[in-house]
Amino acid sequence: MSATEKKLSKNEGLKEDSNFLRGTILEGLADTSTGAISEADTQLTKFHGIYMQDDRDVRSERRNKKLERAYSFMVRVRVPGGVCTPTQWLAMDKLSDDYANHTLKLTTRQAFQFHGIIKSNLKRSIRAINDVLLDTIAACGDVNRNVMCNPNPEQSEVHAEVLKVAQELSDHLTPKTSAYHEIWLDGEKTISSEPDEEPIYGKTYLPRKFKIVIAVPPSNDVDLFAHDLGLIAIIEDGKLVGFNFTVGGGMGMTHNNKATYPRLGELLGFVKPEDVLKVAESIVTTQRDFGDRSDRKHARLKYTLDDRGLDWFRGEVESRSGIKLGEARPYTFERTGDRYGWVEGINGTSNLTLFVQNGRVRDDRELKMKTALREIAKIHDGDFRLTANQNLVIGAISADKRPQIEKILAEYKLDKCFDRPGIRLNSMACVALPTCGLALAESERYLPDLIGELETVVEEAGLGQDEIVIRMTGCPNGCARPYLGEIGLVGRSPGKYNLYLGAGFDGSRLNKLYKENVKEGEIVSVLKPIIESYAKHREEGEHFGDFTIRQDYVKPVKVSKTDWWAAN
Ligand code: SRM
Ligand code: SF4
Predict the structure, then answer these.
(1) Which of 241, 245, 81, 237 is nearest to 166 (CA)?
(2) pLDDT (tens digit, 9 = 90+) per residue, 168-196?
(3) 423-453, pLDDT tens digit by residue?
(4) CA neighbor of 300 nearest in space, from 235, 387, 211
(5) Which of 23, 227, 473, 479 has a CB 3.0–4.6 Å from the CB of 211, allowing a cystine?
């Protein structure tokens, strides 16, 4: 049976009946008898960048007391290319204190997240975000999400050009429904006063989420191959001449469900700058029309490609766009990590990349990062850039302001935040508990401690400064892109993780399952001999992931569909 003949998934009906994403959201917000909204509206609010959650730490206590779950909302703010102004930073900082849990979460896709916003504060929060010209529409949902672009402090001139492309793609693919403004901004139609229609998406939007990213080689700090659509900037003689397009990346899978698997994007062809929007739109509409709307676990572009083939897909995109794609041009990626510290920019400016553990900007006893960044934002005349590794670049710092900024950094000890072992600086964890409803195990709250133990192992092995990419998630959905970690840990159940090894340091090879259901207390003892062997037997310049393949700890994943689940 073809995808179109199969019974549509429940979400398809919800979208169809939602009147362009309105549903009964307004009525739900007005209902003060509960902190929740209806199940159908929880699906629709995602398109508005809003997730209903509850505090899982107190779930059973509240159940015992016969109380409603402790509902609150997570709000995700789109930041195309991850770049925001100091004014916007200050507004996000204030919002986190006024309505959320006093922290700012910098996500793996260069967005801000707020946790713990109660229903009665939702509208105020969305208004505060829009007041500084940021928004939350399409931060989640079955649409194109935040368009990413590497922050690239080393290549500031090209960065500006490429960032513009990211912003144009973002604008072009933003849903056009006026529901967002009607619901959250009291009917103000700041974008358009035309009646609703979605020229690109139609009434039922896409079968599933869609993610776009741009990378400027040699940096792959955005993990280009993990996204549905990737644009690799091709620079010749210092000029941007176009992009290699990749399609079909995605991380999510389900434990024990062999029909699901992470997959890396593959090269589709070369596209000139003037054709980018048209070709991107054709890719989106091809997925709109051929993606599987019957099974949400098989609905991402990666499955459309594996089912129909890359050549078929290219033909469809070329015929829709009327543009013949060129042959992909040569490029080289070197790494997926961020480069910390100071880098000189253009026009006498400089950029500083800071390590933000798991992207959580907060004040705690050891480090008052949130206060320090607020003080910096008050005087900074450049920008802030959220990285795809959950870190932060204070960008385009003028020569004028640099001494003052350095003073604040020193006062709050932020100038030492990247003075840590390589394994910590290359770590990422997803949010997981207590807010994520899908978490099977801890992640953000556990990884820093685990790394503390691993730091002792790497330091004793003489590898303190070596970069080893380690990533953890609380479930197999892959939000911290764990299948691209040289060490990947994926939650199975409370206190247990699957351990994956062997990803490429440049982000071009997935890792593979090494050991299942490893208990928290055993992770270090499983990794210790491998790390010690790496210290003794690695070849000159060999990365940890490559070493684990060469030494046959795991087999390389070449074709996801066949290799991912195959035995080692
Ligand atoms: Fe994610 C769902 C957090 C990046 C794959 N993700 C979720 C939800 C919304 C849980 C839910 O649906 O109820 C999580 C909210 C947790 C919380 O309490 O905040 C969540 N995802 C995150 C973030 C915040 C992780 C982080 O610590 O930074 C990232 C936000 C990115 C953003 O700003 O938009 C985040 N999620 C990713 C990535 C990484 C990426 O895109 O580069 C992936 C893997 C790539 C991909 O899409 O394949 C990812 N998230 C998923 C999936 C699995 C999708 C799939 O195709 O199987 C889900 C579950 C789903 O969609 O059903 C999910
Ligand atoms: Fe939640 Fe799983 Fe994503 Fe982690 S990987 S944030 S546990 S959905």
Answers:
(1) 81
(2) 999 999 999 999 999 999 875 544 555 57
(3) 999 999 999 999 999 999 999 999 999 999 9
(4) 211
(5) 227
Return mean pLDDT, the chain: 96
What is the structure's pLDDT at 160? 87
Give the closest residue to 174 by CA, choosing from 223, 122, 214, 134: 134
CATH of 423-563, one of 3.55.40.20, 3.90.1150.10, 3.30.413.10, 3.40.50.20: 3.30.413.10
In the three-class reduction of DSSP (H, G, I as helix; E, B as strand; rest coil), residue 516 is classed as: strand
Query: 482: cis peptide before it, omega within 30°?
Result: no
Distance of CA 147 from the midpoint of ligand 1 (Å): 14
Closest CA to 296 of 339, 328, 250: 250
Q: How far is the CA of 428 from the centre of ligand 2 (A)?
A: 12
Ligand 1 atom closest to the Cα of residue 477 is 53
Give 490 Cα–ligand 1 centroid separation in angstroms: 14
Ligand 1 site: residues with CB under 6 angstroms?
51, 53, 74, 76, 107-109, 111, 113, 145-146, 209, 211, 223, 226, 250-252, 300, 359, 390, 430-431, 435-438, 477-481
Evaluate whether 280 touches 288 at the Cβ level (below 8 Å).
Answer: no
Whether the model clears a pTM of 0.90, i.e. scores above it, the answer is: yes
Q: How far apart are the first and last CA of the chain?
A: 33
Predicted confidence (pLDDT) per residue in 508-541, tens digit: 999 999 999 999 999 999 999 999 999 999 999 9
Domain 341-420 has CATH 3.90.480.10: yes
